[in-house]
């Protein structure tokens, strides 16, 4: 940490999730929010896994990028790589933004802190409680509406699941991807595609008809909700991702987020994916244990959740927000980012740019 000419503290922050594609990671949105904080200036260190993650080449947002080993490589290899980066950059905070990488970062949190690198992450127990595999049981324990589901280890279990849950049937991967199947043949195809990509078990979930609403929330680890901003999807891609959305005024959704944070003592950012039925019942479809790709909308609405998370990580006082701008919209768009071939070869061959 250092001071800038305008006397604000300057933090070096590592951010993952730079894949701003048709199913974008949260990293670029997190970085945009951090750069707009009035409380501090930042030097952003991008942490990538693939050489074609667009955020690597967004030099107006990312000051320097280093490649990380894949999560499957384990914690020791990750720690060694982060140690190398820290020696060169002096990292103050790291914000991981992918579900699959979170367990490794959580396991390393104390060792990273010993190096002077702060994080603010849920515990392994919190990750497990809201896992898609356990979400139905979690909902029953906390009085939350969650669609019925079955865990599938073989494709021949689909018929029984469909008999119980009916069609359409949602076939989901443990970390990502979901397909709405209208026939057994479609369900089997989805099972094989998802299991090949994300492993077993695959989740068969009851389809709930309604309006899709997401809530981005930030918990301080003591049960207190510092921020909660609901957003209704206005345009949805074929992958189920919001391509446009609008902030809502809805106390029921805010209370739902507060109940989740209080019930789990949630630590860090999260996203509740909700389907509200025609009669107003909010079903929780998923609880993602990190910021969503649309997190920049929280900053635009007056509750800069990424900036608040940095303050929490650094142990700075952080008070809850009580208001946000209702009717604030985001509309995502595609943009052809032009770069030079040597930059691609630099990150591919040397693991940094």
TrEMBL record:
Keyword Lipid biosynthesis listed: no
Segments forming domain ATP-grasp: 136-314
GO MF: ATP binding; ligase activity; metal ion binding
PANTHER family: ATP-GRASP ENZYME FSQD, FUMIPYRROLE BIOSYNTHESIS PROTEIN C
Record keywords, A-Z: ATP-binding, Ligase, Nucleotide-binding
Gene3D superfamilies the UniProt entry points to: 3.40.50.20, ATP-grasp fold, A domain, ATP-grasp fold, B domain
Organism: Hymenobacter jeollabukensis
Domain of life: Bacteria
NADP found in the keyword field: no
Stored PROSITE patterns: ATP_GRASP
Residues in the signal sequence: none
Name of protein: ATP-grasp domain-containing protein
Phylogenetic placement of the source organism: Bacteria, Pseudomonadati, Bacteroidota, Cytophagia, Cytophagales
């Amino acid at each position: 940490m250092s001071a800038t000419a305008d006397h604000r503290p300057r933090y070096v922050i590592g951010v993952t999730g730079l894949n701003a594609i048709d199913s974008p990671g949260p990293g670029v949105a997190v970085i945009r929010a951090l750069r707009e904080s009035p409380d501090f200036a930042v030097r952003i260190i991008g942490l990538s896994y693939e050489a074609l993650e667009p955020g690597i080449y967004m030099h107006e947002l990312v000051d320097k990028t280093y490649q990380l080993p894949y999560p499957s490589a384990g914690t020791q290899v990750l720690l060694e790589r982060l140690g190398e980066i820290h020696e060169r950059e002096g990292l103050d905070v790291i914000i991981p933004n992918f579900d699959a990488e979170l367990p490794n970062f959580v396991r390393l949190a104390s060792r990273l802190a010993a190096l002077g690198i702060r994080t603010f992450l849920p515990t392994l127990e919190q990750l497990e409680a809201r896992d898609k595999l356990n979400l139905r049981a979690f909902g029953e324990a906390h009085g939350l509406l969650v669609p019925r589901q079955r865990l599938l280890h073989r494709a021949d279990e689909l018929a029984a699941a469909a008999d119980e849950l009916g069609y359409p049937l949602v076939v989901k991967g443990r970390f990502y991807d979901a397909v709405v199947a209208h026939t057994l043949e479609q369900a089997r195809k989805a099972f094989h595609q998802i299991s090949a990509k994300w492993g077993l078990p695959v989740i068969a979930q009851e389809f709930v008809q309604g309006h899709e609403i997401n809530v981005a929330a930030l918990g301080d680890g003591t049960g207190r909700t510092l921020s909660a901003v609901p957003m209704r999807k206005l345009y949805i891609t074929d992958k189920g991702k919001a391509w446009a959305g609008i902030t809502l005024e809805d106390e029921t959704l805010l209370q739902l987020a507060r109940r989740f944070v209080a019930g789990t003592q949630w630590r860090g950012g999260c996203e509740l994916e909700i389907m509200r039925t025609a009669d107003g019942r909010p079903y929780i479809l998923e609880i993602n244990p990190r910021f969503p790709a649309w997190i920049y909308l929280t900053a635009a609405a007056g509750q800069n959740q990424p900036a608040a998370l940095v303050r929490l990580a650094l142990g700075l006082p952080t008070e809850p927000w009580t208001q946000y701008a209702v009717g604030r919209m985001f509309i995502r768009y595609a943009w052809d980012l032009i770069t030079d071939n040597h930059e691609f070869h630099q990150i591919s061959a040397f693991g940094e740019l």
